[in-house]
Amino acid sequence: MKKNVIFIGLALIVGLLGGWLIFGGSTNDRSPVKDLSDMSDQHDHSGETVEQMWTCSMHPQIMQPEAGDCPICGMDLILAEAGAEGLAANEIKMTENAMALANIQTTIVGNAEASDDDGMVSLSGKIAANEENNTVQSSYFKGRIEQLNVNYEGQQVNRGQLLATIYAPDLVAAQQELITAASFKASQPALYNAVRNKLKNWKLSDTQINAIEESGTVRENFPIYATVSGTVSEVMAAQGDYVNQGQPIVKLSNLNSVWAEFDAYENQLSQFNVGQKINITTNAYPNKEFEGTISFIDPVLNNTTRTVTIRATLQNRDDLFKPGMFVTGKVKGATQTMENTLTVPASAVLWTGERSLVYVKTNPNEPVFEMREVTLGNRSGETYQLSAGLNNGDEIVTNGTFTVDAAAQLQGKKSMMNQQMMQDESAMMGDMEMSFSNSFSSAFNEALPSYLKMKDALVESDAGQVSTFAKATSKKLKEISTSDLGKMEKQHLTKSIEMLDAIATNDNLENQRAHFVILNKNIVPIAMNIENSTNYYVQKCPMANNNKGAVWLSAEEEIRNPYYGDAMLTCGSVIDSNK
């Protein structure tokens, strides 16, 4: 049996070997099967002009016509996505698949159409306690709180309710005086009345005083009663505390009326007046609309939010409104909607805190977008009126705007998130206009060689040499006359000298590099605005300064990073020059 298996195996091997010799070993040129690479070589490429571009996965703004290393981080470049050519500097292109996944929708901007909300201005706000109805219940005499009957926020208190019981040594002595004076009230009525008035000033009633006088017994603990009704908004003392006369024990808020406080932007202020009716809705009661009247417009603008508080007083006897509840108000604006006013959906607008942005589709046939700044007018319902930034017929993104902005940021294009960074970089590159005389330029040029030596010492991580050259640079700058400098120019020079002195007196390399960041924010704009006999390059490392980026001056185009030295010697790129 084993021999048969061996013979069968040998037969199979011989058969396979013979088949290969007959069919596979032939190299006849007449064979119909050809190598794929040969077919590729025979294909005519004469009509193709597409140039392949290479980019960096970490810095997609890098585009080069051939493979190599990223000039910023040194990583190997990868093939860029096809079809990215032909775009403007701030345009981005998205794939159809990405558009579908993010549900990106666009709308063509047109003139405003009349609606039920025409002329209505929408405001967001929240309910607050009416401070006019707030009261503080205080102790009328000095003593120790023996019992506190109100001890948590939100507790309801009625007028006349016992708030606390206090042991008051002064009252004990005053009662004894009353009992003594009562026996002489016929002969010394003035003294007797003075003692009674003293107790009345401590808010003891005639009934309480008469009871003490009739019983002839001194009472040690005295009650404090609520003088108003309300809700406890703050407990200001604890049981066992010693309190002084007039010291607050509890704060009460009467919520029978509340304030609805709204934030209005500067460009909306002309729409509001005290006495205007305002319709208020809240998520708690979506089917109800409450009417209020504007009672107060804050005369001071909030510098942080750039808004003004507008307040309406609401009756709250049914206890529907709770402080902290979000509400929406609609006011019939004093200025009506103008004809031919462009409107955009509120979902299309990105607000950075200082400016409003939208994304415009610049190519009607392809998903190509560009960020554009707009000036907003009034908000009417879910739309904004525009006073500048768009034209009738422009197509803008109305759904998925944040997704488009994120794509722009990833591609290194201008976006909501990196716009300020680009502006700061632009200022570093010499767009900050400064004016210097020829004598100043000549003197400043004499300080730059020692600055460059200090930069090279930072590259070599030699803290001692960094201090030496910083001191030499500072000395040169201090010799320059500042009599003909403007305010901004003088500030940059003064700050540069301050940072150089800090570097010169510091032997900690990391600390020197931290001061070098601030130094370059001031000295680079000066160097880019003076007459130079030598060419200088403004170079930037995006990872320095805690990934915020930092610049420096160099006489050579080659990158030698002073912020990291040997650790990341070639990290950076040239962003400007004075050529």
From TrEMBL:
Residues 140-252 form the CusB-like barrel-sandwich hybrid domain. Residues 448-533 form the DUF3347 domain. The keyword Chaperone does not apply. One of its GO terms (cellular component) is outer membrane-bounded periplasmic space. Residues 257-333 form the CusB-like beta-barrel domain. Keywords: Transport. GO terms for biological process: copper ion export; plasma membrane copper ion transport. GO terms for molecular function: transition metal ion binding; transmembrane transporter activity. Residues 54-78 form the Heavy metal binding domain. Residues 342-404 form the CzcB-like C-terminal circularly permuted SH3-like domain. Residues 170-219 form the CusB-like three alpha-helical bundle domain. It comes from the Bacteria. Belongs to the membrane fusion protein (MFP) (TC 8.A.1) family. This is Cu(I)/Ag(I) efflux system membrane fusion protein. It comes from Marinirhabdus gelatinilytica. The lineage of its organism: Bacteria, Pseudomonadati, Bacteroidota, Flavobacteriia, Flavobacteriales.
